[in-house]
Fold:
Amino acid sequence: MTEVSTAGGPPQQQHTTTARDTRYPNRPHRTLALRTFTRFAAALALTACASASRTTDTATSTTSSSSRLVAGAALPRTRAERTAFRETSTHADVVAFLDSLRAAGASIAIGSMGTTTEGRTIPYVIASRPLVRTPEDARRSGRPVVYVQGNIHAGEVEGKEALQALLRDLTAEPRRNVLDSLILIAVPIYNGDGNERFDHQARNRGAQNGPEMVGQRPNARGFDLNRDYMKVDAPETRASLAMFTAWAPHVFVDLHTTNGSYHGYNLTYSPSLNPAAELPGATFGGAYARDSLLPDVQRRTRERHGITTFPYGNFAGDEGPASVPKGWLTYDHRPRFGTNYYALRGGISILSEAYSHDPFDVRVKATYAFVRELLSLVAERGGVIQAQVRRTEGTLRAWDPARVADVPVRARLTTRPFDADVIVEQLEPSTDTVGREPGVRRGLRRTGRYRTERMPVFDRFEATVRRPPPFGYAVAAGDTGTLRLLRAHGIELHRLTAEWVGDAGPQWVTDSVSIAARPFQGRREARLLGHWAPGGPQRLAAGTYLVPVAQPLGAVAMYLLEPESDDGVANWDVGGRVSAPQGAPPPIVRLATAPAVARERAP
Structure:
């Protein structure tokens, strides 16, 4: 039983029959996926060996886009493939694989988007036919750009392996494929430092079914990189945002592995969950991915690969709030998470979560199939997606505060779930006090029996605080923490060339501050409690920075700078403005209208 979503209403359920796993005969989706992938890989190897020869430019990439891999060249294999999926790739393995792929004549360009805390490169690959090498070339090509990232949580290793295999297979194909219609940016090993901290899976990824040795979740500084997209404390995040700003992908995909619930799906997925990702007349990525793109990807992965998928979630009680007694619950809405964040920039973002209790090889194959079908669909709808992104950018750049809908800056899990059938695996107590099945909690064992349960599905969020967009915000020149953060996001800044005095409109007045007792990701989160008061005279010195909301990243700017935001500079105590008020930078001034004074574009 799988979900088929429809625009404008809750997903509908459709029964389907697929090949069954001989080990778990009641689960409808295993062996077909393995057979399909094996046949596909074998066919690719044969066609690659028969393709025409080519000359390789070893300085950066390959040459002529009309040719394919060098005739007779051995196709590189990932470490996972070479070890029958007993091991996963090291950072050096990934770099060597990409270099060997280029040496074999693949139509790719390889670069590094930055370095990690410990100095490792963060490699990226551009793949397209004909090959593009620069963001300017990509824009001139008229093709959609898709950015796929693996290994942000370095113990979740299937995205890293699937991306390597997918790059090889797509560039090896002599027939037309998605690389003839889109530009793929692949980042297979984003968290290189975390990847190298190998330890036993039971310690680094306890609820995961192999491989035996994997890296750790955070980076070298202990930061969860998938909680860093707003505060930007890690060098990896700064590199990622610089890539977003330079290449402006139309679609961003982040590859993960789930953490716990025993359900009946190979892979779960999610669009951006932040309500600001679907502002009427402005951002569109959240709704478009949820209601239009992902239902078709779900259908294709099931029909073509035998892979069953479902919207991301966990059963209440596994990871959800105790206030929900029963149901299927998605994750957090805040843009600190990469896929929630990216849609606020005006594009589409998609989260992929392979099923942690599947064997490693099945997780790789499920991720591979999901990404391949997603790329295929984006290639088919490239014109529509690009047109929508252009409309979004135009709307945001021309925002009229008097006409644009209020922007959500805080949200809560929906209070209006819909009911759906969800596949549940039955577990039972284990009497074995010594042995333990990989990925299964101690004291339990899997039965291979599945049932379908009707339950509420909480798959989206609703805004609790909305604020009308102002002209923008004024940030003092001495507020270096905020300015550094805004620049990292790529937000446009202007600067006053003369002093301005006037009424800026209503301003926030803080009555009290709630600061978390314990640090989270190196900071103590805060919440301001207060009210809005009528405006009065404001004095802005020459050199003060202005952040206009009428720009492509206007929604990101508002989420960062509104005092009530649940993921902005106040929440993260940027510059000590909350915890050290005596030495903190001046308040950020909300500007209802543009100051009537000269200003210039700031670098």
About this structure: DSSP finds 14 helices and 29 strands in the chain. Confidence is low (pLDDT under 50) at residues 1-68. The radius of gyration is 25 Å. The longest strand covers residues 444-458.
